[in-house]
Structure formats: structure tokens, C-alpha cells
From TrEMBL:
ATP binds at residues 83-90. Residues 1-321 form the Kinesin motor domain. This is Kinesin-like protein. PROSITE patterns: KINESIN_MOTOR_1 (PS00411), KINESIN_MOTOR_2 (PS50067). SUPFAM superfamilies: P-loop containing nucleoside triphosphate hydrolases (SSF52540). Belongs to the TRAFAC class myosin-kinesin ATPase superfamily. Kinesin family. KIN-8 subfamily. Residues 377-406, 483-508, 539-561 are annotated as: Disordered.
Length: 561
């Protein structure tokens, strides 16, 4: 029972009857006088039940030890904790330094058994650590963009997740600690260190084993260790804050998990695994070929009666799920009886060859470092361009990557036996000549580059000129001959007030109506001899108005003529 629950004066409502039976008691409300002295209880039976005095090692031995053994046989296994916030799920899975949890104990047992069973001592352990936070999948070992879930023949896979290789328990513990530091945990009213995300640790084991008939098997097993976030009420978190949003997403994913459990128990054809990212990741654990263990964590306090009853109910329902038979993932390496000794010798030689390659690489790095230091002490170091410009001898193997290295790396001056001062000076002189030649080549290339830039500018300038000429020709082609022909003067055309409407001069002074009708107006004296508007050649600049203009009138043609 938690410290807050004890301070609140809560009573214990859970009783462990035996190793498989749990009795839940519902206390009546003090205001309910009809059932004041009546206690309502229910029995739940499971494969195993643990009181609060049980150690972490006992929980691991009873729940997960057999699962680790099956993973070593080449099968898949999953372990996940389910319960309310503050019920002890994270403590059960991770634990502390003094009392390690199921994850730590399973990984230690895994490495110990692999070393004992591996035929040639070669084993590969790959692990990945991810979380589901607010319906987004994130990599805890390499934080970055959210991951996308995809489905292939192997099942649901998080695309882009980082797979780390581990060769010892200490490496796995370091990766696990780094992932837990990146995991989202925030304080709430129910728990000061509440996990706000679902964490999933996946461990893939691959090793070789030899049976009694001297056949070698390559076995591959997968172990998934899952720490689910706790379901909680809205009152247990700060309302209208990020915590409430996180709680809503947690409850939504756990509700989807409950729906999948219910559908699997009832034997429905359609299982709603796609309702949540959590259920998609648990698809293989719940409905696939996998051996799954569900650990239900509950609080004995009567203040958490609703959450405890809900957890026990779904744990009891999940007990009725029957997964598919998990086949052994192993590949037989056929070897004849007469060639077993040769095969064993070949494996040993391959292992020794790998070790020697690693040692050779380290020695080469040390040798190159010493050579660089000696060259720096005697003369200026060669430039990278000089190193790459030299070619290797024709006797070098074409398959090796060292054929592109410089020849001075293979000279006698770089061997441990060459300690003669004269040879070093000769090499230094040769390197200086190479540097000078490269400097001259670089100067020539710079000059050519400048010339090319100048030619490029000239070409661009010439093209721009041609484009301008083309544009001018296009403008001239658009002008008609009529507009270019000079206007012939018409002797019959008289100057009138309407002439200002056809005047191409933009600065022509406009005349008012009173100026036109005065006696000084020239239009009054010459009005009798004026021709009609149709006889006047109109210019295209300004079209005359069709309305009658003030100060003059049209001359009617003489019909009798």
C-alpha cells in the first residue's frame, strides 16, 4: 500500500487466499444503511498470485524464467505489466539497483545461458527500445522523428528503429539506462514518477547449437519486455493540462487493448488491432505465434477499488486467450559425419581470423599515426591531394580497397625495418617535389578556371544582346505601314473646335463653351464653308465624340445641286 493511501486511512480490500486465488472485497458506503453491514466480494483465480512481501527474484522465476528458456529454444515470448497508476508496474519490470526487476534478470539469465549453450561461442544479441507517447512511436535509444509502423511477413515493424548489438550484460544495462532517461515520466496527483508512455524492449537472440547427431542448428528467438503506462481517472491528473491529455491517450490505448482481449476471448474473426499504436505493436504477443505472460499489478487500498477491480477483470479475461503454437525458429546446417571435425576446425579458424583482422587493423592505425608524426617532425606533411594523386603498383590485388592508396604508403620508409636517415631524407625530397608539382598544377587549374569564368560571362553578355535585338525586331514588326505613312494635308479641312479632340499633342489647351461661342472664335466666321465630319480623316490617336458639339452645327447637303 502506498504512503499516501496509508495517510488517507484506507483499508485493505485484497486478500491472497492461496497461490492462485485472489479475493476482492467491496466495502459498503457509510451512508448506505441497507448494505451497511454487508460485504460484497469476488474470487479471481490466476496461474499465480503474489503478496506484497514477494521478492523480485521470485516473481521472475515464476513468470519469466520459463519464457526465457523458450526464447533460447528459438521461439518468441512477451511479458507485459498491466495495472493502474502507482500500482508498481515499472518497479516490477525495471526495479532498482538493489532489487532488479524482470527486464534486468531476464537479460542476465539470457546471456548466461547463451554462453553455456553456444556451440562455437559466437552469438548475436540485438535490441531495440521504443515508447508509445500520445499515439506516436519514438525511439528511446536514438531520439528523433516519430517512427512509422509497417507490417511485413515477420509482423509489425517500426520502420527506422535503431538496432543495437550487445555482447555482454553490461552493454545492455547501459543501453537500458540511456533509454529510461529518454522516456517520458511526469509527476501526477496519483504518482510522483508516473510513466506517461508505454515502453517496449525487444531483444533478438541468434546463436548456434549442436545436437546429439552432430548437426548444427542456427536458432533465432525474440523476447519482448513491455512496461505499460497506468490507467487513471481524470480527477487523478491536473485537468485541462498536458497531463490530462496524456491520461486520455493512455486510457484510449488501454481501452483498445481491452477490446482486443475481449474479441480474442470471444473468438471473433475481426480483432481491432489497428485502433491504437499499442495494440499494433502487441499484435504478435496477443494473437500471433508467441508465448505471452501478463503480470497484473493492483493496489490493496479500498480507495483504488475501481481500478483494482478493472485490472483483475481484464487479467482474468486475458487468461482465456489461446495464442497460436510457437514454432521453433531454427535453421539446420547440414554437415556430413566425416566432415564434422573439419567443420569444427573451420569455425575455429574463422573465429581466429576475425580476431587477427581486428588486431591487424589496430596495428595499422598505430603505424600510420607513428609515420605521420615522423613526417611532421622531418618536413611539412603532404597535402591530401598529393596522397590521392599517386597510383598503386600494378601487382596489387584488384579486389582490395588499398589499390587506390598512394604508393608512398607501401614504400620501405613506412616499414618498421627502415630506420636509415638517408632513406627518410630521400623520401622527404621526393615529397617536396610532389608538393611543388601539385602547387603548379593547382595554379594552372586556377588560371583555367578564371578563363572559363570570363568566357562564361562573355557568352551570357552576348546572349543578352541577342535577346534585346530580337525584342526590338518584334516591336518593329508590329507597326503597320499606315501608321508609318505621313499624313497628307486636306485642303478642304477647316479648323474647328472639334479639332482639339483629334489633336495628337497632349499639351493642347482645352477651351470652354464660352470661349467657343464668342465672336472672336474662328469657328463662327468659317462655319459656312465647313464640310461634314465624314470627309475628315480621323487620326487613330483620339476618336471624336459622336455627340453634337456646342458652338457649331453640321452643314446639310444641298439636294437641288
Amino acid at each position: 500500500m502506498a504512503k499516501k493511501e496509508k495517510e488517507a486511512g484506507s483499508r485493505c480490500c485484497v486478500k491472497i487466499v492461496n497461490k492462485k486465488d485472489v479475493y476482492l472485497t467491496e466495502f459498503a458506503n457509510e451512508n448506505d444503511y441497507l448494505r451497511l453491514k454487508r460485504l460484497k466480494g469476488r474470487h479471481f483465480s490466476f496461474d499465480a498470485s503474489f503478496p506484497d512481501s514477494t521478492t523480485q527474484h521470485e516473481v521472475y522465476t515464476t513468470t519469466t524464467a520459463e519464457l526465457v528458456e523458450e526464447v533460447l529454444q528459438g521461439r518468441n515470448g512477451s511479458v507485459f505489466c498491466y495495472g493502474a497508476t502507482g500500482a508498481g508496474k515499472t518497479y516490477t519490470m525495471l526495479g532498482t539497483l538493489e532489487n532488479p526487476g524482470v527486464m534486468v534478470l531476464a537479460i542476465k539469465d539470457l546471456f548466461t545461458s547463451i554462453r553455456q549453450r553456444s556451440f562455437d561461442g559466437n552469438h548475436v544479441v540485438q535490441l531495440s527500445y521504443l515508447e508509445v507517447y500520445n499515439e506516436t512511436v519514438r525511439d528511446l535509444l536514438s531520439p528523433g522523428r516519430p517512427l512509422v509502423l509497417r507490417e511485413d511477413k515477420q509482423g509489425i515493424v517500426a520502420a527506422g528503429i535503431t538496432q543495437y548489438r550487445a555482447y555482454s550484460t553490461d552493454e545492455v544495462m547501459a543501453l537500458l539506462q540511456r533509454g529510461n532517461q529518454n522516456r517520458t515520466t511526469e509527476p501526477t496527483r496519483a504518482n510522483e514518477t508516473s510513466s506517461r508512455s508505454h515502453a517496449i524492449l525487444q531483444v533478438v537472440v541468434e546463436y548456434r547449437v549442436k545436437d546429439a547427431s552432430m548437426n548444427i542448428f542456427n536458432r533465432v528467438g525474440k523476447l519482448s519486455l513491455i512496461d505499460l503506462a497506468g490507467s487513471e481517472r481524470a480527477l487523478a491528473t491536473d485537468q485541462r493540462t498536458l497531463r490530462s491529455l496524456e491520461g486520455a491517450n493512455i486510457n484510449r490505448s488501454l481501452l483498445a487493448l481491452s477490446s482486443c482481449i475481449n474479441a480474442l476471448v470471444e473468438g471473433k474473426k475481426h480483432i481491432p488491432f489497428r485502433n491504437s499504436k499499442l495494440t499494433q505493436l502487441l499484435k504478435d504477443s496477443l494473437g500471433g505465434a508467441c508465448n505471452t505472460v501478463m503480470i497484473a499489478n493492483i493496489s490493496p487500498s479500498n480507495l483504488s477499488f475501481g481500478e483494482t477491480q478493472n485490472t483483475l477483470h481484464w487479467a482474468y479475461r486475458a487468461k482465456e486467450i489461446r495464442t497460436k503454437t510457437s514454432d521453433t525458429n531454427e535453421e539446420v546446417i547440414e554437415i556430413s559425419e566425416t566432415g564434422t571435425d573439419q567443420a569444427k576446425l573451420l569455425l575455429e579458424l574463422q573465429k581466429e581470423n576475425r580476431e587477427l583482422r581486428v588486431q591487424l587493423t589496430c596495428q595499422q592505425q598505430k603505424l600510420l599515426t607513428l609515420q605521420a608524426q615522423s613526417l611532421a617532425a622531418n618536413a611539412s606533411p603532404p597535402t591530401p591531394s598529393s596522397v590521392m594523386s599517386l597510383e598503386t603498383p600494378s601487382t596489387a590485388q584488384p579486389k582490395e580497397k588499398s589499390k587506390h592508396r598512394s604508393t608512398f604508403l607501401t614504400r620501405t620508409c613506412f616499414t618498421p625495418e627502415s630506420k636509415n636517415r638517408g632513406a627518410e631524407e630521400a623520401v622527404v625530397k621526393e615529397l617536396r617535389l610532389i608538393v611543388k608539382a601539385l602547387e603548379l598544377e593547382m595554379a594552372r587549374m586556377k588560371k583555367d578556371h578564371a578563363t572559363q569564368l570570363k568566357q562564361k560571362d562573355d557568352i551570357i553578355r552576348e546572349l543578352s544582346r541577342k535577346n534585346e535585338k530580337t525584342a526590338e525586331v518584334g516591336v518593329k514588326k508590329g507597326v503597320t505601314r499606315a501608321s508609318l505613312r505621313p499624313k497628307e494635308p486636306n485642303p478642304g479641312e477647316l479648323k474647328s473646335p472639334s479639332h482639339r479632340f483629334r489633336s495628337p499633342v497632349p499639351t493642347a489647351k482645352k477651351r470652354s463653351f464660352w470661349d467657343i461661342t464668342t465672336a472672336n472664335s474662328p469657328s463662327v466666321t468659317t462655319l459656312h464653308g465647313r464640310k461634314t465630319r465624314s470627309h475628315i480623316i480621323s487620326e487613330p490617336v483620339a476618336a471624336p465624340s459622336m455627340l453634337p458639339q456646342p458652338g457649331f452645327a453640321r452643314q446639310r447637303p444641298d439636294v437641288h445641286k
